[in-house]
UniProtKB/TrEMBL annotation:
One GO cellular component term noted in the UniProt record for this chain: Golgi membrane
Signal as UniProt keyword: no
Taxonomic lineage from the root: Eukaryota, Viridiplantae, Streptophyta, Embryophyta, Tracheophyta
Domain of life: Eukaryota
Record function comment: Required for vesicular transport from the ER to the Golgi complex. Functions as a SNARE associated with ER-derived vesicles.
Cellular localization per UniProt: Endoplasmic reticulum membrane; Golgi apparatus membrane
Domain T-SNARE coiled-coil homology: 42-104
CDD domains named among the record's database cross-references: SNARE_Bet1 (cd15853)
GO biological process, one term: vesicle-mediated transport
Membrane topology: Single-pass type IV membrane protein
Name of this chain's protein: t-SNARE coiled-coil homology domain-containing protein
Family stated for the protein in its record: Belongs to the BET1 family.
Keyword Protein transport: yes
Keywords: Coiled coil, Endoplasmic reticulum, ER-Golgi transport, Golgi apparatus, Membrane, Protein transport, Transmembrane, Transmembrane helix, Transport
């Protein structure tokens, strides 16, 4: 009998074709066939049990990993929700400020506004040259 191992850990058993009737009776001794078949059955069972244990370990690992991924996704979703809420509140504050600027610029004359801006620039330049 020949064996072939699969990547997943299972072992396939197969017989090579034999030619002639005399090869059918090769190796027959008292209890020889039963002992060989029982022994190979025990080997196969042992190998299958090892493969099954390996698969169980992999399943447990994958289950743990998928649970960790789920927790990470939930954490990121909560963080993104908070960021979205913060952005909405910031957008509200900025839009209110822009509305106030618009009302200030619309009610003031452009000459008066130009004088105010020029005064601020002048004061800034004076302070800059004094501290230099």
């Amino acid at each position: 009998m020949n064996t072939r191992s699969l990547p997943c850990g299972f072992v396939l058993l197969f017989r090579e074709p034999r030619g002639g009737r005399s090869s059918l009776f090769d190796g027959i001794e008292e209890g020889g066939i039963r002992a060989a078949s029982s022994y190979s059955h025990e080997i196969n069972e042992h190998e299958n049990e090892r493969a099954l244990e390996g698969l169980q370990d992999r399943v447990i690992l994958l289950k743990r990993l998928s649970g960790d991924i789920n927790e990470e996704v939930d954490t990121h979703n909560r963080m993104l929700d908070r960021m979205g809420n913060d952005m909405d509140s910031s957008r509200g504050i900025l839009s209110g400020t822009m509305d106030r600027f618009k009302t200030v610029f619309e009610t003031k004359s452009s000459r008066r506004m130009l004088t105010l801006v020029a005064a601020f620039v002048g004061v800034f330049l004076v302070i800059y040259y004094l501290t230099r």
